Amino acid sequence: MVQDGTNCRLRAEAISVAYPGRAVLENLSLDIPDSKVTAIVGPNACGKSTLLRALARLTPVTAGQVSLDGHPIDRQRSRVVARQLAILPQSPLAPEGLTVLDLVRRGRTPHQSALRQWSRADSEAVERALDLTGLNDMSSRMLATLSGGQRQRAWIAMALAQDTDLLLLDEPTTYLDLPHQIELLALVRQLNRDTGRTVAMVLHDINLAARFADHMVALKGGRVRYQGAPSEVVTAKMMQDIFALPCTVIADPIHGHPHVIPA
Amino acid sequence: MTAEVILNHRAMDDRRALVLLASCAVLVLLCLLALRLGYRPVSWADLARALTAYDPTDPDQIVIRELRLPRLAGALLSGAGLGIAGALIQGMTRNPLADPGLLGINAGAAAGVIGATFLLGMGSPTQYVWTALGGGALGSALVFALGGGAQASPARLLLAGAAISAFFFAMIRGLVLMSRQSLETYRFWILGGFENVTAESLAALWPFFLAGALVALAAAALIDALALGEDTARGLGVNVGGAKLLAGLAIVLLASSTVALAGPIAFVGLIVPHMARAVVRNDMLWLAPCAGVFGAALMVLADLAGRSPLFGGTMQAGVLSALIGGPVLIWLVRRTGGRKL
Asked: In which order are the strands placed within the sheet that holds A166-170?
């Protein structure tokens, strides 16, 4: 369980999610520790994306509830939730003809209404998001002309412009090559350290998750099987239980994080 | 660095405002030409008098007031309505080929007109304005219902539109074969044009156009969020079902009123948003007004050209808007290598 003394604004309380004819999550409880980076890992179809989507009220739960600040998230106004919690869905698609700045500005949607149009605070949040992601020089570039890594950073900048304490990322490194995966996760790590944002993300790569997360959650068959610090979670036993992968786990000689070496 | 980004953004908005202002100026010019030119050209002085100090005994002034002014108003409203509706539906369905006609509105309105002439024996445009409007609304309501209501996906919506349109048009063909009077009405109506726009039909329909435009502006930011995908929009706190219904309402109001006023005018709703996007990009709060002005200008131009001796003075605007718009669309596709489409 999460160590004592850590607050958790976002929690799944005994949630179940079922798609027609198939239960994906069953009676799952999970707390996302504040101001930490949490990585959710597990084999394909274990329900990790569904869990993240349920935490972000994108997928409705069939039992239990997701609570934000102690209140059921689906009973709160979606626009109000969007000022606390941002989610970047898996490989989102942008319409053509959008610049980086156009995209990042849309992150301000929950802060605006028909009566309250673009304000100074909106501009400042967009500036900060561009600064943090290092996209200032590219703000007038068309999204279509960016590399995959730059485009993914632009989407993260959009989520940052939302100016929320909680940031959920669904497989943010998909389709990126290794250097860009490292760059993106280093950015997430740095965002968490500099701004104190809580991050929860679904990741495929156990070694990268162990290196860039404070807290790891391993899922299998719609249940949480392991959770804790990477050094506690990433073990040969866990890899066998969760992925059925025989392996040796060593300490990464440079950083000391657990490192999986498949047998 | 930060100031530069703000400046970039201000420069973009300034450019957009400039484009909008310039196209409004061109539109005013086109309107004046449309009032002056025609089978019976009118002098500037007579035009000014007809607008400010109307003398109902002067035949020149009567031509302007009774014939050209309603016709011009019809072209302006139709062009603006189709332009805005096209921008909305392309944004909402994330499909650059979407056109308001795809939602079953034109087919429903056509069925309304034929139903009125065949079943009720109505022959005058002022009579079938209401059946066309009702038919358009009915057609689109059926499409939204079949497409899954608030859960409608763009693909399902467009498929439902194709199915409903095919059904209505099959019915229309059957009725037209059985009734000569329906055929005569239908033949002119289906081309789309402004001969039949009257002061009465304008008076009946302008509130629908106004309501549609206002709803469009209210839905603009929501459609921008929807264009990023439904998950992203939900993450941004947008009520996706509500946003789609609001956008759908604006589209139906604008497109049904247009088809009731001037018949099904092809292509304007498809092409005009692309023209507008080329200059103001994908920000609906700018795109919708810009598409409105561009659409109005294209329609007035098409009507003006259709009345010119070049086309024998009687070519329907719905035919010419496609003739003028087609090459522009091809040019846009070639210029961007199809990337923007």
From this structure: A85-88, A166-170, A198-202, A37-41, A215-220, A223-228
Nearest Cβ partner for A110 among B224, B237, B281: B237
Here the ipTM equals 0.90
The H or E element spanning position A63 is strand A63-68
- Number of domains present in the structure of chain A: 2
Spell out where A150-197 has E strands.
Answer: 166-170
Distances in Å between the Cα of A241 and the Cα atoms of A2, A222, A248, B118 are 21, 14, 14, 74
**A254 found inside a domain:** no
**A54 domain residue, yes or no:** yes
pLDDT tens for each residue of A119-131? 888 989 999 999 8
Mean pLDDT along residues A98-107 = 91
Mean pLDDT of chain A: 91
Place of tokens 């070639």: B334
Range of the domain at A180: 1-84+164-235
* Domain CATH number, residue A189: 3.40.50.300
Helix axes of B268-280 and B2-36: crossing angle, nearest 10 degrees: 140
Domain boundary among A163, A184, A202: A163
Which of A163, A188, A213 finishes a domain? A163
Q: Where are the domains of chain B?
A: 2-336
Report the Cα B218 to chain-centroid distance in Å.
18
Confidence of residue B146 (pLDDT cuts 50, 70, 90): confident
In a domain, A251, yes or no: no
Chain B residue at shortest CA distance from A144: B339
- The per-residue pLDDT for range B302-339, each reduced to its tens digit, is 888 888 777 766 777 777 887 887 888 788 777 765 44
pLDDT in tens, A1-20: 445 567 899 999 999 999 88
Mutate to test the interface with A, among B93, B223, B234 (most CBs of A within 10 A): B234
Q: According to the CATH classification, is domain B2-336 in 2.60.40.1930?
A: no
B296, B320, B326: which is closest to B307 by C-alpha? B320
**Nearest Cα residue in chain A from B13:** A102
